[in-house]
Predict the structure.
Amino acid sequence: MGLVMTLTQSSRLGLEAGCSVFLEQGLCLPYPALKASRSPGWDGLLPTLCLSLRVEFIKLASENETVNLGQGFPDFAPPDFAMEAFQHAVSGDFMLNQYTKAFGYPPLTKVLADFFGKLLGQEMEPLKNVLVTVGAYGALFTAFQALVDEGDEVIIIEPYFDCYEPMTLMAGGRPVFVPLKPSPSQDGELDYSSNWQLDPTELASKFTSRTKALVLNTPSNPLGKVFSKAELELVASLCQQHDVVCISDEVYQWLVFDGNQHISIASLPGMWERTLTIGSAGKTFSATGWKVGWVLGPDQLMKHLRTVHQNSIFHCPTQAQAAVAWSFEREQQHFGQPSSYFVQLLQATQHKRDHVTRSLQSVGLRPVIPQGSYFLITDISDFKSKMPNLPGAEDEAYDRRFVKWMIKNKGLSAIPVSIFYSVPHQKHFDHYVRFCFIKDEATLQAMDKKLQKWKAELTP
């Protein structure tokens, strides 16, 4: 018959008396009258959304003559084969202007099942184990709405991509935070994202009878941490022990530097059955505006996501899906070879990371070297000591005041790292800012000019 939804799930979908919900088989199931409800956490959520802060810093950067190292997107073109695939999708078969299958354009779901099935060691069925979404953001939202009920707890590892908390609250859940803790480094030594680790005892203490899910992000935003196999095994053991779902955000999986290895937690023993693995064509092919993402997982979880998807957005743009399908088919033929875009993008991005790291160090910023992703964070403790009284509201975190000062006075934009923490923990991590380094060479040269001017001003 398909999925029978809980009352809280159906109320979140906005069902009214006599309304029917369309299930994945195309059948309709009538629901009784339900009183719509709002999660108590939602009223207090809007004013504190990290997104509003990011918008504030982006607006401030646009009003000043800045080099944009704040927003996380490439400012260069996708590979030629991807652009050609999109152009072909738009100008070729006119039926690509129409609906395709609700859960994904069949050639795309097939290639995703083939491609990732080999990586995860699973025989994946396109119709049961793959769902195409409006970007990875859409995949995350669908997962939270499908699986998190009123009062459920969701464990979120800090620092975290800023949508995890509001999405948990919007589903009626309660976020439970556990921080990665940096190991002390010697004066003059570089810090690395691998030095930021979970305390196993503290992590274990966060699991309760109400824990529904844990959100994992590897490689992570904003830190650029790549979780090791031992760390993943710890998370996997606790998820299995407490019967918890793992929502694994792996959008940066092709950007892992210095010979480190990305491991999908779904590939570990006993984890496929309880993991949703989320990916992004925007990050994979440097085309963030296409907004094509996906979720991979077992049918007993995916059927819930399909119901939310079909009764919310229903369908993703066909032409973008076709372009992603053709791009993956091309990548399958070159995978692991020097001609692979994944190999070429990794090499180019690691070079950009190293360039930005050296340049930021020239003015006294102390980068935390990332193992992966688009981003690095830098320690601004020295600036906090030397100029603690930057303009800003009395209770405004230092990193936010520093970024505003840097935008207005140095012409460089970044994002304060404290917004990637829960409110109680923000004051402990207000001495870091995040830079995005996946930028065109011209942007990096413009950054160098700004930093050279800054360095000259520091010289007595």
